[in-house]
Amino acid sequence: MNQASPRIVVLISGSGSNLQSIIDCQNQGLLGGQIVAVISNRPNVQGLDRARAANIPDHTLDHKEFSDRESFDASLQALIDAQKPDLVVLAGFMRILTPAFTEHYLGRMLNIHPSLLPKHQGLHTHQRAIDAGDAQHGATVHFVTAELDGGPGAVQAAVDILADDTAETLAQRVQKQEHIIYPIAVQWFCQNRLKLQQNDDGKHCALLDNEPLSSSGRLTEAP
Ligand code: GRF
């Protein structure tokens, strides 16, 4: 790890509001690391404009130009590694990753998922939480492992589901929480406080300040 200022590469596919929250944290001098590149798998998305506005080098690697998942991930890995990152941050990066890719970045790649993991892995989480009659919904920042949305949690934020919530209104409240917890997790990692550990049984868990976190990560309640 670059101790002075850990190097962060952020991967996006869309609007990049989570990227923005991390840029804002960096601009306030609170991140403890530097975003050295933003990479999108989709051309012309808003997140690329956000990177340019913050003077962060941006790259587009269009997955549609690759014939299979393996060749795309291999090119993506080469592009990321050229930045010599200490941490890879998936911020709305809508791609299923190959096991070779997740293994390469094990312990140094984070993702944010819009649910209280392990509940509602996969897509359409807001509607699924409403349909399930859940009292709460939320978001989780977790280490990325080969299991989709299955790696150990670092930090989680919960919001109450209201009687008149739609998937859209619920998603808006959850996103506000995402923008709070993602910079926190990145900050913890840059400060060397957040780590991934492999236990004797081969399973992974996240450590904060050398203490194991619950598998969902530290829970914060919405104010
Ligand atoms: C977020 O809601 C995140 O939880 C999910 O994708 C969305 C990305 O939004 N993985 P943005 O691009 O950060 O605005």
Structure description:
- This protein has 223 residues and is of the alpha/beta class.
- The protein has one domain (7-221): Rossmann fold.
- Helix content is 31%, strand content 26%.
- It is built from 6 helices and 11 strands.
- It has helices spanning 17-27, 46-53, 69-81, 99-104, 125-131, 167-190, and strands at residues 7-12, 34-40, 58-60, 87-90, 109-113, 136-143, 153-160, 194-198, 204-208, 211-212, 218-221.
- The strands form 2 sheets. The chain has an 8-stranded mixed sheet with strand order 3-2-1-4-5-6-7-11. Strands 8-9-10 form a 3-stranded antiparallel sheet.
- α1 (17-27) runs parallel beside α6 (167-190) and α5 (125-131) packs across α6 (167-190).
In a few lines, what is going on in this structure?
The chain has 6 helices and 11 strands. By secondary structure, it is of the alpha/beta class. The protein has a single domain (7-221), classed as Rossmann fold, CATH 3.40.50.
